[in-house]
Write a structure and sequence with these properties.
- The complex is a heterodimer.
- By secondary structure, chain A is of the alpha+beta class.
- In chain A, the strands form eight sheets. Chain A has a five-stranded mixed sheet, with helices on one face. Chain A has a four-stranded mixed sheet with strand order 2-12-10-9. Chain A has a four-stranded antiparallel sheet with strand order 5-6-8-7, covered by helices on one side.
- The model of chain A is unreliable at 1-26 and 35-43 (pLDDT under 50).
- Chain B is mainly alpha-helical.
- In chain B, 76% of the residues lie in helices and 1% in strands.
- In chain B, a hairpin with a 4-residue loop joins β1 (86-87) and β2 (92-93).
- The longest helix of chain B has 38 residues, at 185-222.
- The termini of chain B are close together.
- The model of chain B has no long low-confidence stretch (mean pLDDT 82).
- The chains are: A alpha+beta, B mainly alpha.
- At the A-B interface, α2, α11, β12, α12 and α19 of A face α2, α3, β2, α5 and α7 of B.
- Chain B: The chain crosses the membrane at residues 9-29, 104-126, 138-161, 195-214, 248-265, 293-318.
- Chain B: Its main location: membrane.
- Chain B: InterPro entries: BPD_transp_1_N, MetI-like, MetI-like_sf.
Chain lengths: 659, 334
């Protein structure tokens, strides 16, 4: 039972459940939930690797640690203390698709430092040089790093991603934008097995940040840079005959070759796909099953200060369940690490139970601040001119009683600010996002009058500048983070009525939303914009596409001046776009910071996005004996949520209780 | 009878085709398509898809063709190759996805159906035969509750009470610690411990309705002259009840078999979603939400074929059980 080998074998034959249980020595009449192996073996503090792995080395199933680690492993300083090996991390998720697993299977050429704000730090590349003012980046890969199947990771893997993924029109109809500063696609050049050059026609200002971000470079993404060439060649059109491909596609049916290929490198569905992160998938979700299992990557290339291989924790189990159950399980102390999918309404229960059920709730900095986005690119020229007046937006903002909303929704704990990045963002300057924010009905009326809304209809509501009746329609859908968008619109409706502005709320389905909203034919929407690392996700502050909610048509124009839903911006809004174009192509940090601040200052002065009340904190649920968890950090997709606390260096104080 | 059967079978074909066409078109009616959902997902993760990229993707998936063209391509593949197409969302063939979920769906459906009918039969007959007895009032009260309270609400309440009182959270089919454990008595008991809740909740709604119908029907029959006649001949009361009026009162049961069969297949959506049961119900819901049309279309098509078959079976059974139905067809029983 304690032989870890039997578990590995067991997992492979788990279809034959009954016979497997006999092999593993479990009696059918046992009521014990112990799995076919016990991973709770007492962890020896002096051991350089997990007992699970040393047993495999002893059996000759795995090369010794020295051969698995690179020449120069990355040394991680644990947040509190060096850990113990072992344990299973229990986690939950609502969606059956890939969510949290991608962050713990991820490894970056560069990785975020565990700091606030997060900076690009070394990862698979131990060092790098920026040459020719940022037109050339040279990355020096850690020598001897291996994929989770033991095959070496080299510059050839990156070349494979460039040549066979990015340049393949079927896999990527358009070359990834993040590798094309100024719209000009970059080039990868292999110098030697461990050196790679990325060359661009114009300087690249954000490359290092992009490389850390899973949304662009992770395995789930279509523009991932880290692909196991040795494994994927057997599925790629360029390397196999059409006949071979046909046989393979019969085995793994998919609508198109590109779906088939992506399916083979899907780290959530295909347990064979090699990875470079700390844990790898061994048992995917199947059929009506609700759990998936990840186990430690025996070739992971990070160690602690004593040279002990990470991760400390042996495996992770993901259970799919409805939101209500997930909350109850968390409140029962059955989930060991959870940031995503915790619903706001479950918070009181979670906080109340933490003592008695032995888990803790850390308060991380939250991002969402559901805001009112007036459509600056409104198709109606009268409303467009009105919306573009600072006085109008100032009037609407002054009319909102944010303190009342804060007290009612967050017991006064929320933050009050217009989205203008947030204090933890490197471009933020103190005092930003506070303009027109205080509740002042007199001032609001004064401002609205000044905006030219002096005439009122028989119902006492203000008329449009051209004398017609004015009713603004606010659109929203259930986003899932921040204050419910519909509540924000309902509050606004009440506050604005008091100053003579008529608003109706109109919720819609997400499907309809993404179909209609990018056309830009609406008055305003409620939506929480991003406020951290917005430079690598431009659309929130700079109209760069149709989902820039406060100026969709200008965003469409930026993407394609001939877009039939586009409109050419002028003045400060156009300036945002040119500033951002410069920012993307500025490699010098100080100059880049200056450009970013100019963008935020324009937002600060113009209040294009009217903020309401921000979520006070993002709860992070952690098992009582889970160590090395950061007490505070920013919970954001762009820093990979809980991964801001590097799960590979987390450990259980009593791993035997988590087997 | 044979002629009748052939006629019925022939009439089924256009019915099924028509339903499948209409449902396929309805799935396509909302604005956007599967790619809209993809873009939405990417957007939530902070990624953006350009319009040229979108057009290329649309062509790859043949989503740029007209809905009718898509339908004919889909139907031809089903008829000629038995291929229901691919789910975009899961990147798997529709048939594989359904196959994976059918054991749980059917198992749950059958268990619910058997338990539900057994309870309903006994309670319904008792409740009619002993009208206005204390137990009848209890049954009646419970059935009204069962009818009035939606299943998902019962499920939520029970899940919360279990958590509150016993500190356990029932969801899925086995506890997390047993999830990838090998099969032993413990896991079996654990499975049963999880199974009772969905079966109870799913059965409650149906049972209540059936009890009421059976009770009403039986009450109608109990006062008919043939019952009096049989009683006058000194037939034992229990024998009489079971042999004559109950048989007649069973007709609505038999008539509804037609709906039971597709219900077994496509499962209960709400309760399954609340309890985290991965049956075909939530699969269909997700497919509809994300406009994964071949998956949704496939499930609906199979459900409608089963409905048509179920109706036929119901009719045949009714004819077999009830002489009046046979004779009503005007000599087709010859």
């Amino acid at each position: 039972m304690s032989d870890p080998l039997s578990r590995r074998t067991f997992l492979r034959v788990s279809g034959l459940t009954l016979s497997a249980s006999a092999v593993a020595g479990c009696s059918f009449f046992s009521t014990d939930a112990k799995k076919a192996s016990g991973s709770g073996a007492a962890a020896d503090a002096g051991a350089k690797e997990s007992p699970v792995l040393s047993a495999m080395v002893k059996n000759g199933k795995l090369p010794p640690l020295e051969q698995r680690l690179p020449k120069n492993p990355m040394v991680i300083k644990p947040i509190q203390s060096p850990g113990k090996y072992g344990g299973v991390l229990q986690r939950g998720q609502i969606d059956r698709g890939a969510t949290q697993n991608q962050y713990v299977e991820f490894a970056g050429l560069l990785e975020w430092t565990p700091t606030t704000p997060a900076e690009p730090g070394p990862g698979l590349a131990e060092k790098w040089e920026v040459l020719e003012d940022g037109k050339v980046y040279v990355f020096h890969l850690r020598e001897g790093v291996k994929w989770s199947d033991g095959q070496p990771f080299t510059a050839d893997d990156l070349m494979f991603a460039y040549e066979k993924e990015f340049l393949n029109k079927e896999l990527n109809p358009v070359f990834p934008g993040w590798l094309a500063p100024g719209g000009k696609p970059g080039k990868f050049v292999k110098v030697d097995d461990h050196t790679l050059r990325m060359e661009f026609e114009v300087p690249h200002g954000l490359l290092l940040k992009y490389l850390c971000f899973i949304g662009l470079t992770g395995f789930g993404s279509s523009s991932t840079v880290l692909l196991p060439a040795h494994y994927l060649k057997q599925f790629h059109k360029d390397f196999i005959s059409p006949a071979q491909l046909k046989t393979l596609m019969k085995k793994y049916p998919a609508p198109t070759w590109s779906d088939f290929f992506k399916g083979r490198r899907d780290i959530w569905k295909n347990a064979d796909a090699p990875i470079l992160g700390p844990w790898k998938l061994v048992a995917p979700l199947q059929g009506s099953g609700v759990t998936a299992r990840l186990e430690r990557n025996p070739y992971y290339w990070k160690v602690d200060e004593q040279g002990r291989q990470l991760p400390y924790i042996d495996s992770q189990q993901y259970t799919v369940m409805p939101a209500e159950t997930l909350g109850l399980r968390a409140a029962n102390g059955q989930l060991d690490l959870q940031v995503t999918d915790i619903q706001a309404e479950q918070l009181p229960l979670l906080i109340k139970n933490q003592e008695s059920k032995g888990y803790k709730v850390n308060r991380w900095v939250a991002e969402p601040n559901t805001s009112i986005n007036l459509n600056q690119s409104h198709p109606d020229p009268v409303l467009r001119a009105l919306f573009q007046k600072v006085d109008f937006r100032a009037g609407l903002s002054h009319a909102i009683n944010r303190k009342e909303m804060n007290d009612a929704l967050f017991a006064g704990q929320g933050f009050i600010r217009h989205p203008c990045a947030q204090p933890e963002d490197e471009y933020f300057e103190k005092g930003m996002g506070q303009r027109f924010i205080e509740y002042d009905v007199n001032e609001a009326n004064k401002r609205l009058d000044a905006a030219g809304l002096t005439q009122r209809g028989p119902d006492g509501m203000r008329l449009r500048p051209d004398g017609k009746k004015m009713q603004l329609v606010g659109r929203c859908f259930e986003v899932g983070v921040g204050i419910d968008a519909i509540s924000v619109l309902e509050y606004a409706q009440r506050y604005w009525k008091a100053v003579g502005i008529d608003l109706v709320a109109k919720p819609m389905t997400p499907e309809l939303w993404y179909e209609e909203i990018p056309h830009g034919d609406y008055d305003l929407v409620a939506y929480p914009p991003a406020t951290i690392l917005w430079d690598i996700d431009s659309l929130w502050y700079i109209p760069t596409n149709g989902l820039t909610y406060w100026a969709p048509k200008y965003g469409n124009w930026y993407g394609n001046p001939k877009d039939k839903f586009g409109l050419e911006p002028t003045g400060d809004i156009r300036k945002l776009q040119t500033l951002y174009d410069q920012l993307v192509t500025t490699a010098d940090k100080d100059k880049r910071l200056d450009l970013g601040r100019q963008i935020l200052k324009l937002h600060d002065q113009n209040v294009w996005i009217i903020g309401t009340v921000g979520t006070p904190f993002q709860p992070l649920i952690a098992a009582g004996d889970l160590r090395n968890v950061r007490p505070d950090a920013i919970a954001s997709f762009r820093t990979h949520y809980e991964n801001a606390s590097s799960p590979e260096q987390m450990y259980f104080d009593s791993p035997e209780k988590h087997s | 009878m044979a002629g009748y059967l052939v006629r019925r079978l022939l009439a089924m074909l256009p019915t099924v085709l028509l339903i499948s066409l209409v449902s396929f078109l309805i799935i396509q009616l909302p604005p956007g398509d599967f790619l809209t959902t993809v873009v939405a997902k990417l957007q939530q993760q902070g990624q953006t898809v350009g319009s040229d990229q979108l057009a290329a993707l649309r062509a790859q998936y043949a989503l740029d063709k007209s809905p009718l063209e898509q339908y004919f391509r889909w139907m031809t593949n089903i008829v000629l190759h038995g291929d229901f197409g691919q789910s975009f969302q899961y990147n798997k063939p529709v048939s594989t996805l359904l196959g994976e979920r059918l054991p749980l769906t059917l198992g749950l459906g059958l268990a619910t159906w058997l338990i539900g009918w057994t309870v309903a039969l006994i309670a319904g007959i008792y409740s009619a035969a002993r009208r206005y007895s204390k137990l009848d009032y209890v049954i009646t009260a419970l059935t009204f509750l069962g009818l009035a309270v939606p299943g998902f609400l019962i499920a939520l309440t029970v899940v919360y009470l279990e958590f509150k009182l016993f500190g356990v959270t029932l969801s899925g089919l086995v506890s997390p610690e047993f999830e990838d454990a090998s099969w032993n008595l413990g896991k079996l008991l654990d499975l049963l411990n999880h199974l009772w809740l969905p079966v109870l909740v799913l059965a409650s709604g149906g049972v209540a309705g059936t009890i009421r119908v059976l009770r009403a029907n039986l009450l109608d029959e109990l006062h008919k002259p043939y019952v009096t006649a049989a009683r006058a001949r000194g037939l034992d009361e229990r024998k009489l009840l079971m042999r004559y009026p109950t048989r007649v009162a069973l007709n609505p049961f038999i008539a509804t078999i037609g709906w039971t069969i597709p219900a077994l297949f496509d499962g209960e959506v709400l309760v399954a979603s609340v309890l985290g049961l991965e049956t075909t119900g939530p699969l269909l819901l997700n497919a509809l939400k994300s406009q994964d049309m071949y998956l949704a279309g496939g499930i609906i098509l199979i459900a409608c074929v089963l409905t048509v078959i179920g109706t036929l079976i119901s009719d045949l059974l009714l004819a077999a059980v009830d002489a009046r139905v046979r004779i009503g067809y005007g000599g087709s029983s010859k």
